Amino acid sequence: MNDAEAHLEHSQSTLAVIQAMEAALGAGSNDMAAHFHEDFVWRGNAGCGTKKGIAEFRKNWQLPLRAAFTDRVYKTEKFLADGEWAACFGHIEATHSGPFMGIAATGKRVAIPYMDFWRVEDGRIKDNPVSVDFASVLAQLGEDVFAGRGWESLDRGETKPS
Questions:
Q1: CATH classification of 3-29+39-147 is 3.10.450.50, yes or no?
Q2: What is the mean pLDDT of the chain?
Q3: How does 67-85 read in b/e, with b if 16+ C-beta sit within 10 Å?
Q4: Which phi and psi (to 5°) does residue 149 adopt?
Q5: Is-contact 149 131, C-beta < 8 A?
Q6: For a Cys staple, 14 with which of 3, 9, 30, 120, CB 3.0–4.6 Å?
Q7: Interatomic CA distance for residues 97 and 13, integer angstroms
Q8: Dihedral sign, Cα of residue 123, residue 124, residue 126, residue 132
Q9: Which stretches of the chain are DSSP H helices?
């Protein structure tokens, strides 16, 4: 096998690990150890935090997300893989059923946009940088975290953000 074939095989193996993890978590599995190293690091954007290890990830991300948003459907638009790294982007469709960022449950159906990156080591995820668009989710719930100063106004032809 030449280097290009080996790289492609490695990429396919990485992607298979990620797709199996997403399918299991999407089905509500709580068996994180099957997919993540015990000491993996989940690194989220502002508002999401950094979680070190499976226990912290479950306590400070997975369980609060599941409590705030139920009836979740994961809609991954595209997966990419390159060697030990894989990535995807998409959104979760969910019902706002519990408190979220100080907002009581509204019952609204929302889309939670995300981009996920994973580094797979020994068949399990070791590193997981993530971007979850909480500003978009809050806007869907009636909260403008930019207080009207978002740059969307530039898209409407305004010369400066309001």
A1: yes
A2: 93
A3: ebbeebebebeeeebeebb
A4: -105, 15
A5: no
A6: 120
A7: 36
A8: positive
A9: 3-26, 54-57, 63-68, 134-140, 152-155
Helix, strand, coil in percent for the chain, rounding step 5: 35, 40, 30
Q: How many CB atoms lie within 10 A of CB 110?
A: 21
Q: Where are the domains of the chain?
A: 3-29+39-147
Q: What is the pLDDT of residue 146?
A: 93
pLDDT digits (tens, 9 = 90+) for 79-137: 999 999 999 999 999 999 999 999 999 999 999 999 999 999 999 999 999 999 999 99
Summarised one tens digit per residue, pLDDT across range 97-112 is 999 999 999 999 999 9
- As a whole number of angstroms, the distance between CA 88 and CA 153 comes to 29
Does the CA dihedral 61-127-118-12 come out positive or negative? negative
CB burial of residue 104 (10 Å; 0-12, 13-18, 19+): exposed
Helix (H, G, I), strand (E, B), or coil: what is residue 143?
Answer: coil
DSSP 34: G
* CA torsion angle 94 99 102 104 (round to 10): 90
3-state secondary structure of 159: coil
Inter-residue contact 87 to 115 (CB < 8 Å): yes
